[in-house]
Design goal:
The structure is a single chain. With about 120 residues, the chain is α+β, with helices and mostly antiparallel strands. It has two helices and seven strands; from the N terminus they run ββββαβαββ. Strands 1, 2, 3, 4, 5, 6 and 7 form a seven-stranded mixed beta sheet that branches. Helix 1 runs parallel beside helix 2. The radius of gyration is 14 Å and the shape is globular.
């Protein structure tokens, strides 16, 4: 089975041994995206700003693969504090419109680089 590696400078470069996304046949699987500003490499301290950047980074990767957020079938969100759940819902609604993709949201002990939120998606392109 062959697959294509997706990379865009409009989202942060991988910070470990992984790709931003892989695309095989009609499926795209993104790696988790922290709220890193790709132009500076910095993570803002504010949760809402991190969430917005996480979704913007995912959007950039999906677009680099030839799709848009309407192609997303599944979203997985990782939060270091479930108290931020209502905020991440509000931010997600800025990026996705009904009918919404399936979604899972997990609380985790910590994320790389001290991030507060990470988002990954599966899309059909």
């Amino acid at each position: 089975m062959t697959h294509e590696i997706i990379h865009t400078p409009l989202a942060p470069a991988a910070i470990g041994p992984y790709s931003q996304a892989t695309k095989g046949a009609a499926n795209l699987f993104t790696s988790g995206q922290l709220g890193i500003d790709p132009s500076t490499g910095e993570i803002p301290s504010d949760f809402e700003a991190q969430a917005r950047l996480s979704f913007a980074n995912v959007k950039a990767i999906v677009q680099a693969a030839g799709g848009d957020l309407s192609n997303v079938m599944k979203v997985t969100i990782f939060l270091t504090d479930m108290a931020n759940f209502p905020v991440v819902n509000r931010v997600m609604e800025e990026f996705f419109q009904a009918p919404f993709p399936a979604r899972s949201c997990f609380a985790v002990a910590a994320l790389p680089k001290g991030g507060l939120v990470e988002v990954e998606v599966i899309a059909s392109i």
